[in-house]
Design brief:
Strand content of chain A: 15-25%
Organism (chains A, B): Aliishimia ponticola
Distance between the termini of chain A: 21 Å
GO molecular function, one term (chains A, B): FAD binding
CATH architecture of the largest domain in chain A: 3-Layer(aba) Sandwich
Number of helices of chain A: 18
Oligomer: homodimer
Strand order of the largest sheet of chain A: 14-11-13-12-18-19-16-21
CATH superfamily of the largest domain in chain A: FAD-linked oxidases, C-terminal domain
Shape of chain A: globular
Pfam family, one (chains A, B): FAD_binding_4
Protein name (chains A, B): FAD-binding oxidoreductase
Mean pLDDT of chain A: 96
Largest interface: A-B, 51 and 51 residues
Keywords (chains A, B): FAD, Flavoprotein
Structural class of chain A: alpha+beta
Chain lengths: ~475, ~475
């Protein structure tokens, strides 16, 4: 590997290269620190330089040159991912896509754009053009990029109506550049999309994205409180099951999450209040009112545009999804989280069982989504962290009760998923990244096909802590 | 009752009154003849005159005057309903709303209009204004009115995504005039909507409607053939369960429905082909192709805009819902139909059981819908009619197998439903039509609260056959 040769050649090509240590260090970090486990493993990781292309042609140059010099390339958008997916485990080059922000075409139901545009800016462009918006986005809408969302996310605000990014129809097309002596540009559609979506940039660099759109509405943010957590779950589940009521978010927080961690909501709830956060389409408000009237325990405490709180809470979606953990972390740095799938069959009973056994060490934060045509529930559960051993115990208890764990305290694709390789992703990496230079260390099966998953995978190529300190 | 006095007073008021016998007779008929049972009972029924108001003020005049003269009032839009809901069982006045067609306001996600506008014209207005359209419509879109759809329909094209008219959020507001000495105008919202929606105009006259809208797309009509009917069902069910694939119609026809009854499709299918009809959003087409590729038995025979059939099939939705029966009837006048709910738990198995027992006397025509957040299936089953007794036997067999029957061979609300009164509708009729003059004979419980439902209800007030012949 010759870092310096790569830097020199790239600079000579006119590509924006950053080697300034504090700036490189800051661009070498994502939100991995959500996890105390990842914080321990990855805090020292740093790239050698940052390359910021302005076009696909420059992406191709960067990949060609890094390939020639055997320089690892880890791609990032805004770095708001919290699985360490943008952490350059082996140093090398950070490929920063933040300047590739073009919106190329907007048509009824679809948009074509570059990967580095912020979700917020993409929504603004679609709304201005034709009253449209993305079907779903992460709670980091204001700061995250569409490319990062696709390469490292699974769904979010909007998944209560549209399902996840993985579901057919929710990504229309990806254009991808390979990491070879002569990088190829490939148009990826159909089932092949799963080769590169949610692959952390391990097997190709996304340079163009075609996404489906939904109509843009002035969604009404709402908070309700419930004394009975189970009623809050039931209410949210049933609301999401109303096919005629258009909502974009239904999130449930066990008490005392809202009281303890949501500063602007706290004055309006009690310690024992479970809270539900919703986004409802304006024209669904009459129906929502009708629906809500049937729940005796539902107390509406905030309706955006109607309720006059001394301090406005801002976007309601910035309380849900990964923002819940973020808000809790700001108040109590010992908080971390889990990602749990409670399924579609009887999620409310399963959540009740987990709560019974683990509250308050573990507090339920539940997102309602759709999957396979049914209403489902997922937990982005808050955990009071004490030790890695205890965290593993808590995860094991979930699995034992039938709640499926997607471990956010691991930096590999497999451990964050179902602990098996996605054969399509592996096969595509063989094709698109034969030297294994793209985001190395993130795909266990590439490095150690026989890994047992008995314990946390520690990639042997990870920068030693001493090297960077 | 003084018909002549009513006619004179109405005419003096300047209201458009039609007493010309052939014209009154034609406006006294709906599509009740879909059912040989209703044809036998109602063919002779005729009103005394037709009143066609141009405004809500004229509706009020008509109701006031008919109330004073004890003249029954049966309301109609375009008369495309097939349950006899617009048949004036006791004669009197036909209130024809076909001139109340104003579109009053269109906003993101909603439209306010008068009841007499055709579904087609309302969609055109919403599309021209802001690229929007109704969430759902009957297959009689080109000829039916929005008021008739709401007063006599339950769902249709679009229900595979949005559920039925009955589901909260799918009707936003109705404005209704009562039948009293001094008619009142009431704004009906929330749960109260069920008082007057699907009430056949028995308890108030709808003069203004507020409906939710969805984005208008240039839906792509598609036909597929399958050799295996069960695979056709499974394909359609699974497609409807794709939350990320926007479709507006998924209809399955057992063989040989398409071959025997769909003239323009017939040249392209075999006698043993089951056929699936779809409407897919243009931006869902790539995902649809991906989805379809996984079904080895699915043969795409027509894609609107791509397939060059010598004779184009027209709107694909005009093969589904109640148009299936209409097409079959045109070829074989002995065909009639049933309305069956197969539910959400295991509809495919239940349909298989019914088919096994009753095909080919009974041919499966299945509509995929959503209900309560789940994919469900309903049958608008074709039946080779032989006798009323045999039809009743066939219905009983369905019920025995667990398939729920909504009998379309009855002219009362209760018999077409679950054979029980809707208490809200009855209570509202007491309030809004104390004399029982609105569409008399259509609500059993109003006339005979103790009716047993052992046999077909025959309203004692029905015009005797001899009277009109």
């Amino acid at each position: 590997m010759s870092i310096q040769a790569a830097i020199d050649t790239l600079t000579a090509k006119g590509i924006d290269i950053d080697t300034n240590p504090p700036s490189v260090k800051s661009k070498s970090r994502d939100f991995f620190w959500y996890s105390p486990v990842l914080k321990d493993r990855l805090d020292h990781v740093v790239a050698d330089f940052v390359a910021t292309p302005k076009s696909e042609a420059e992406v191709i140059d960067i990949l060609r040159i890094c390939h020639a010099e055997d320089v690892p390339v880890t791609t990032r958008g805004a770095g708001t991912g919290n699985y360490g997916q943008a952490m350059p485990l082996a140093g090398g080059c950070i490929l920063h896509l933040g300047k590739m922000t073009a919106v190329k075409d907007i048509a009824p139901g679809r948009v074509i754009c570059e990967p580095g545009i912020l979700l917020k800016d993409l929504d603004a462009a679609c709304k201005a053009d034709s009253g449209q918006e993305l079907r779903m986005f992460s709670s980091t809408w204001a700061t995250a990029t569409i490319g990062g969302f696709i390469a490292g996310g699974s769904g979010g605000v909007g998944s209560v109506r549209w399902g996840g990014l993985r579901d057919v129809g929710n990504i229309l097309r990806l254009r991808v550049v390979t990491m070879e002596a002569e990088p190829r540009v490939m148009e990826i559609t159909g089932d092949d999309i799963h080769r590169v979506a949610h692959a952390y940039g391990t097997n190709g660099i996304i340079t163009e994205i075609e996404m489906p759109l939904a109509p843009a509405y002035d969604w009404v943010g709402i908070f309700l409180s419930f004394k009975d957590f189970e009623e809050a779950l039931r209410y949210s589940y049933d609301l999401a099951a109303c096919d005629g009521l258009l909502i974009k978010l239904a999130t449930i927080f066990e008490a005392p999450i809202a009281k303890d961690y949501f500063q602007r909501v706290a004055p309006h709830v009690a310690e024992d209040d479970a809270v539900v956060a919703l986004m409802v389409a304006p024209h669904a408000m009459p129906g929502w009112e009708t629906f809500t009237a049937a729940y005796s325990g539902a107390k509406t405490i905030y309706v955006q545009g109607q309720t006059d709180w001394p301090r406005q809470p801002g976007h309601v979606f910035e309380y849900g999804w990964n923002h819940t953990t973020l808000r809790a972390l700001k108040v109590d740095p010992s908080i971390t989280y889990l990602q749990i799938a409670y399924g579609a069959d009887d999620p409310i009973a399963l959540i009740g069982k987990v709560k019974e056994r683990l509250s308050p060490e573990v507090l339920q934060h539940v997102e309602v989504t759709r999957s396979g045509g049914r209403v489902t529930m997922s937990g982005l559960t808050l955990v009071k962290f004490t030790s890695e051993e205890r965290l593993d115990e808590i995860i094991a208890m979930h699995e034992e009760m039938g709640a499926i764990n997607f471990n956010p305290h691991r930096y590999t694709l497999e451990e964050g998923g179902r602990q098996t390789v996605d054969d399509r992703q592996l096969a595509f990496k063989r094709e698109a990244d034969p030297k294994g230079l793209l985001n190395p260390g993130k795909m266990i099966t590439w490095d150690d096909p026989d890994w047992s998953y008995d314990s946390m995978y520690a990639w042997p190529g990870l920068q030693p802590k001493t090297a960077a300190e």
